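To close the chapter, one final illustration. This time we ask the reader to focus less on the individual chains and more on the assembly as a whole: which components sit near each other, and how the overall shape emerges from the parts.
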Amino acid sequence: MKKSYKIEVDCANCANKMEEAAKKTAGVADASVNFMALKMKVEFEEGADVDKVMKDVLANCKKVEDDCEIFL
Amino acid sequence: MIRVETMNKKQKKNLIRIIITSVILVGLHFVPAKGLVRFGLYLIPYLIIGYDILIKAFKGIKNRQAFDESLLMAIATIGAIALALYSSGDYVEAIAVMLFYQVGEWFQSYAVGRSRKSISDLMDIAPDYANIEGEDGELEEVDPDDVEIGTVIVVKPGEKVPIDGVVVEGHSSLDTAALTGESLPRDVVEGSEVISGCINLNGLIKVRTTKEFGESTASKVLELIEDAGSRKSKSENFITKFARVYTPIVVYAAIGLAIVPPLVSMAFGLNANWGSWIYRALTFLIVSCPCALVISIPLSFFAGLGAASKKGVLVKGSNYMETLSNTRTVVFDKTGTLTKGSFTVTAVHPEELDEEELLHMAAHVERYSSHPIAQSLRDAYAHEKDDCSVENIEEVAGHGIKATINGKTVCVGNSKMMESIGADWKPCHHVGTIIHVAIDGRYEGHIVISDVPKEGSKEAIASLKKNGIRQTVMLTGDSKEVADHVGSELGLDIIKSQLLPQDKVSEVERMLDDRDSEKEILAFVGDGINDAPVLSRADIGIAMGGLGSDAAIEAADVVLMDDDPRKIVTAIRISRKCLRIVKENIWFAIGVKVLVLILGALGFANMWAAIFADVGVTVIAVINAIRCMKI
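The assembled structure is written out below.
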């Protein structure tokens, strides 16, 4: 399953770091951050609990870039 | 230009911090304080401009992000302040590093915000409401998402059509510029299809919706543009990978630079000169931020995609932009792509009657037929609905139509029909479908009907060649005679005719196999509905979008919204410009950074040079990237 989220982040490199962090989160099959459109596309693994996974994604993103937000 | 009202809250706040810090720095220049007092005074502007960076740096340590940009910047500036405290007392340099870093961040944020805004304005096609007429005749504004298929909505002059549908009442002109880049308005009457995103210019129209809002053209197009940036180009992937290794390498080099040379000097019994080497190491940290590179690449593509959409060309991803710029061969479908795909009367050859009269008779006979040929004959004779008597219309299958007009029997059809009634027909040297006309059994001449090239086709082929396209090819299912005629008129290099749809695929595959290198990109241009397999097989598929044809939007990588083949050249030129700017930025940014690193290591570049390599390069690269928006 794929979902798209609006995000808030200031720099392009931070957006790349968020993408990395999201990709590494358990339950995420693939993720892509579009800095210019401020959107994050997440492809979830089969049977993943979307709400829970996204909370982890946000927590992981906050670790690499404190000043970021994902609108869940 | 920079305008205060276009800034967001954060940008305003940071701009104020930048100004205050600059003023204090200038003021402190005239304060003759020494020692710790001086240190304390200079700490004020440093904290004003740098407090958020210091907080983020602290969080970076907590989260074990060794290569966090803020952390590196904090180390560099605190290090510089410590060195100044220890020796020279020149704190300005350290504060300037922080100040200019913030200026760079601010500028970047402002520029990105502005280009986001200008592109979303450009794509301001998504309507926010639909009008529904209530029982009392009052109009009610509703969320277009809630409008069901088959609902009649009202579009007032000046409003956008919110949902695709068919006009059931009224007539008007629609401005389709936001979707097609075409500036001429399109007239719609009862029964015309309208697509969402067009602006109703003058009359009030009622539209019966045929799609849901989410499936309507405007929503689809918007989604496409927003998603385009997610399909990343090779240059973007390269930069992301580069950034990932660049920062750690520079940081380790900085550590090495701070420790190794002094230790080596000491081993040889020389002065270790710690201060000077640490200073050089700090300049490294300032240059270690990959921001200029990372921001300028997606920004360039974003601007390029925006520029293309403005011209009515939808490119579905940055990666296609890259491919498009390397196009060497363009393969065209004929019908609907290079030609109009509809029949037009191209010649009238009467025996004794005048041309008008021959068309007049033929049009009458075809009065009630829905065949495309009948349509084209009626179009060619504008006054068909006159008071002539038209009776006994009879269709002769495989031959044509006959009717009694003003008492005379008129036969309109092919040569078989002429033979069957014993009229002495004559062949024609023109290429196309020949319609013979006989009146009361006597041959009166023929009318030639053919599919004509689109207005821009010839120009498109010529300017493709001028723009470095090596080969233009036309593939068609049509007869050799027609194909060769159209092909040579338009100036195509290779013409292949009488192909079945699967033959087109194998022709394209053969061309892909025969080329010298994978880098010589082959583009296929088709009208999208029947060409889907070829569109997906070619390196890049360009579809004639024909105002919202779903199949085309799905199958292709690039969609020409107004079906104008000249837009292929526009698209290729935009992509080339965009790629050139991307390359310029990559080389410029990496070049300056490496140069400053080398000079810094040798002791020739001070912190000011490092600031330029970071902030200056970012600003220049961003300004360069924005050029992609202008064509």
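Chain B has a mean pLDDT of 86. The longest strand of chain B covers residues 339-350. With these observations in hand, you are ready for the problems at the end of the chapter.
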